[in-house]
Design brief:
Layout (H helix, E strand, L loop, with lengths): L4 H11 L2 H10 L6 H9 L2 H11 L13 H8 L1 H23 L4 H22 L4 H10 L2 H9 L6 H4 L10 H9 L3 H11 L8 H4 L12 H18 L4 H14 L4 H21 L16 H11 L9 H16 L4 E7 L4 E8 L3 E5 L16 E6 L2 E8 L6 H37 L3 E5 L5 E4 L1 H7 L10 H5 L9 H8 L5 E8 L9 E12 L2 E10 L7 H17 L3 E6 L4 E4 L11 H4 L1 E2 L19 E4 L9 E8 L9 E8 L1 H15 L9 H18 L3 E9 L1 H8 L1 H18 L5 E7 L2 E7 L3 H19 L4 E8 L6 H17 L4 E4 L4
Parallel strand pairs: 20-21
Antiparallel strand pairs: 1-2, 1-5, 2-3, 4-5, 6-7, 6-10, 8-9, 9-10, 11-12, 11-16, 13-14, 14-15, 15-16, 17-19, 17-20, 18-19
Helix pairs in contact: 1-9, 2-3, 2-6, 4-6, 5-6, 6-7, 6-8, 7-8, 7-14, 7-16, 8-14, 14-15, 15-17, 17-19, 17-25, 18-19, 27-28, 28-29
Length: 829
């Protein structure tokens, strides 16, 4: 197909009235003429009324009602009136064209208007004098795709492209070049040029999807690329909330915004976006699921919570208990119903939680007959990639609308993490079980027929209890059972042109064979990992002769399955010797796992064969010899059934978790620590205080609290500057870390120049000594220029965390009132 530019010109002529062309001509002028704009709008009273309605929307915040275009231009400016009019005209006539063809235009319009508003706000930061250009270019960048609904509706229908035409689909660039020898960005630029619309910086139209090359372009083009990506993230990625976190964090860094400034940018964009939709009478699809109504900090918190599911190793019951804990802690929800499945196997588990009984599992037959008691209107699906993985239901009447929105967001992160768990742990366990239960003996042989490796089923069939590696297969198979050497087998070994052997032979009853049996043997020569070898399958077909080929296929399938797995798959004996290694790590065979691998620093348990007793937990290790993986793997141990000789083996699956741990560490630090001082932040202080007070009450051990602010800190900020003040705050933090007991005392930055220290398992005398040591260290370091006004309190019987904090705070205030540079105990006030 050639470039369809002629058809697109005709389609634009049919779709858009002259008003659209006239507005565009004004829009590209450096200084639009309001008189001309007013005359154009005067021909369309409905358009004028809509423009005035949007001008009166909450976003623009007009002090009094705007009743005419002159007043609107005075308040908003001529360019803003022009952008509003152009956007409304664009939407109105394209919607009519799409409606005639049964295609949802609103799904596309949401992305178009979001990207236009976003481009303008980004340009405000990156290229302020080009804000209006950014809006116009982002508004028109996909007009060629939209026109193709008229000219080639079959190719770009919802069925072939997806419901949102303006969202980039996998492989779309190649498809466009195959159809038209160009991309839709070039088509748009050519179409507008033919329409004699001189778009400034038309290159922006051609590159608006090239996010990976962002740094190669000028600031205006960067605004268009970022705005395009932003609209797809916020409005067209419901199953990928982590991508929104990454994008917003990237945007915050790129624009050098503080957390508050970044949130304000999202709020401004969302507010204007919703005002436009409301004025045009467009209902936002699934508004409770939109990411833009949630802050980056909240999304990071829920991602951190849900990531706990990815490390579950004790089945779906453990998943349900973790979700129960999160619902109870975050929203006080104790009563709910939950179903979970593994998509590859379609097995469903049903869990119920009540305030009286906690979490319990209810038996179910299948996913079509679940014993729900909560209404379907209370459902929160667990869905990712179009696959239903489960569902949560609870009583919405007891929750606020904000709680509903937050739970919906949390469950989307749960969907991501649960999918990771279901595809990793559950599937691996089931595959390992299948490998173990397969009724086929499997062996790897050298080109001369000696045994390199056999599975448990084959050893059981051969009746050997020892290590048969290095032995001649036919001796073990035939001669040891009073069966003469087979000539065909010898021919197979010696003839390089003979690549396979398939035969059935019988072993008759005798001293070494208690019953008659017939055996199906299949052997294939292969070149694998740079060496020649023979893969052999053996099955007793005395009773199931009709299934021999099916068994062979099962064995071949399982070999391909293990070979294609990205994880490292091993089996080890009770001493840690590796008896099987998947192809990616085959060079580890015969080595000892516990000598090769070293646990990472966070692992505190014993490392060695003793870990295999009981139910081994997962362990993170460094395994330097695994070249195709990063050096950090998570090893999951699963016991295999005992062999006939009583020996036991374990399945070990090694998963590359380097990227996961890096992200988790970053999110943990964001959630737990103050960015300036590195101390625990205000939120974590309250969490820890609650935990340690409850622990002190349970264990009947004392706990103290030291609360202080810095004397003379404001004077340093005022005279030496905020950077000097920041240095003081960081220095005090270092003094606290050096002078406190690690793991027992918790220093926190409460806010500003206020600090709090939770001090556990300490009596009054030692607490006095510790507080004086901290006070003296600060006084000595700053030579009296900075001091502490400290309040100290010991937890009293029956006292709540809030009451303890209030007493310490009050004592600190008393110390400040008395001139500072002193410690006041709560009991001394």
């Amino acid at each position: 197909m050639t470039t369809p530019i002629a058809s697109l010109r005709q389609c634009m002529k049919i779709t858009f009235p002259p008003v659209m062309l006239q507005l565009l001509e004004e829009a590209v002028k450096p200084t639009p003429d309001f008189t001309v704009i007013a005359t154009i709008l005067g021909f369309d009273p409905v358009l004028t009324a809509t423009v005035l309605a949007l001008a009166n929307s909450p976003y623009y915040g007009a002090g009094q009602k705007v009743t005419d275009l002159n007043r609107a231009a005075t308040i908003l400016g001529t360019k803003e009136i022009l952008k509003i009019a152009l956007s409304i005209t664009y939407q109105k006539h394209l919607h009519e064209a799409f409606e005639k063809r049964g295609i949802d235009f609103y799904a596309n319009w949401r992305l178009i208007i979001w990207s236009a508003i976003a481009a303008e706000l980004l340009a405000e930061r990156l290229c302020r004098d080009q804000m209006d250009q950014a809006y116009l270019i982002a508004l028109l960048k996909d007009i060629s795709l939209l026109m193709l609904v008229c000219t080639d509706s079959c190719t770009f229908s919802c069925e072939n492209h997806g419901p949102v035409l303006v969202a980039m689909q996998p492989g779309q660039t190649g498809k466009e070049h195959a159809l038209w020898n160009t991309g839709h960005g070039d088509l748009t630029a050519q179409l507008l040029a033919d329409w004699k619309i001189d778009i400034p910086r038309a290159d922006c139209l051609k590159h608006h999807h090239e996010f990976e090359r962002l740094d190669e372009f000028d600031p205006l083009t960067q605004c268009i690329i970022l705005a395009t990506r932003w609209s797809e993230m916020e409005l067209n990625s419901p199953d990928n909330p982590k991508a929104v976190i990454h994008f917003r964090a990237m945007l915050q860094r790129r624009l050098s915004l503080s957390q508050e400034e970044a949130e304000e940018l999202v709020e401004r964009l969302a507010s204007r976006f919703q005002s436009v939709l409301a004025t045009l009478g467009i209902a936002e699809a699934a508004p409770v699921e939109r990411f833009y109504q949630h802050s980056l900090r909240l999304m990071q918190e829920y991602h951190f919570l849900a990531s706990e599911l990815a490390d579950v190793s004790d089945g779906k019951g453990d998943v349900a208990r973790i979700i129960a804990r999160h619902l109870r802690w975050e929203w006080g929800v104790d009563e709910w119903e939950l179903t979970l499945s593994v998509p590859e196997y379609q097995d469903w588990d049903f869990f119920v939680s009540t305030s009286a009984e906690g979490v319990r599992q209810v038996p179910v037959n299948d996913g079509n007959d679940l014993p729900w008691t909560f209404a379907s209107s209370s459902r929160f699906p667990i869905v990712t990639g179009g696959h239903a993985l489960g569902e949560l239901r609870l009583n919405r009447k007891k929750l606020k609308e904000e709680d509903i929105r937050q739970i919906s967001l949390y469950m989307r992160f749960v969907s991501n993490s649960y999918e990771h768990y279901a595809l990793r742990q559950t599937v691996l366990e089931l595959k390992a079980h299948t490998l173990d239960q397969l009724p086929v003996g499997v062996a790897r042989l050298s080109p001369k027929g000696t045994v390199l490796e056999v599975n448990a089923r084959l050893k059981q069939f051969l009746g050997t209890t020892g290590d048969c590696r290095g032995m001649d297969l036919w001796h073990t198979l035939g001669e040891a059972k009073d069966f003469a050497r087979d000539a065909e087998w010898g021919h197979f070994l010696n003839d390089s042109a003979m690549t396979s052997l398939h035969k059935i032979f019988c072993l008759w009853q005798g001293p070494s064979n208690p019953t008659d049996s017939c055996v199906y043997l299949a052997a294939e020569k292969r070149h694998w990992h740079g060496r020649e070898e023979i893969l052999l399958f053996l099955e007793d077909v005395s009773l199931i002769a009709g299934w021999e080929f099916k068994a062979l296929k099962q064995g071949e399938f399982l070999e391909r399955l293990v070979r294609s797995m990205r994880d490292a798959v091993l089996t080890i004996d009770a001493h840690g010797r590796i008896s099987f290694a998947s192809p990616r790590v085959s060079h580890l065979l015969e080595k000892n796992l516990f000598e090769l691998a070293k646990p990472v620093a966070s692992y505190q348990g014993e490392w060695g064969p003793s870990i295999l007793t009981g139910a081994p937990a997962s362990v993170e290790v460094a395994l330097p010899l695994v070249e195709e993986f990063s050096k950090t793997l998570e090893l999951v141990f699963s016991p295999l059934p005992k062999e006939a000789d009583g020996h036991k083996h374990w399945l070990v699956v090694g998963r590359d978790i380097t990227a996961v741990r890096r992200l988790e560490e970053k999110l943990k630090r964001l959630a737990l620590f103050d960015g300036l001082t590195g101390l625990l932040n205000h939120y974590q202080f309250h969490v820890l205080l609650e935990r340690e007070v409850q622990r002190a009450k349970r264990t009947d051990r004392s706990i103290g609290l030291m609360f202080f602010d810095l004397d003379n800190f404001k004077a340093i900020n005022d005279t030496k500057g905020h950077q000097a003040g920041d240095d003081v705050l960081r220095t005090v933090a270092r003094i606290l870390k050096a002078g406190l007991r690690k793991g027992m005392d918790y220093p926190c930055r409460y806010g500003g120049d206020e600090y709090a220290i939770i001090i556990t398992e300490i009596d009054t005398g030692n607490l006095r000594t510790l507080c004086k040591r901290i006070n003296d260290a600060v006084e000595e370091h700053f030579q009296g220029e900075v001091g502490l006004s400290s309040g100290v309190a010991m937890l009293q019987p029956g006292e709540s965390p809030a009451q303890l904090l209030q007493r310490a705070d009050k004592a600190s205030y008393a110390a400040k009132s008395q001139g500072g540079h002193r410690i006041i105990w709560s009991e001394e006030q």
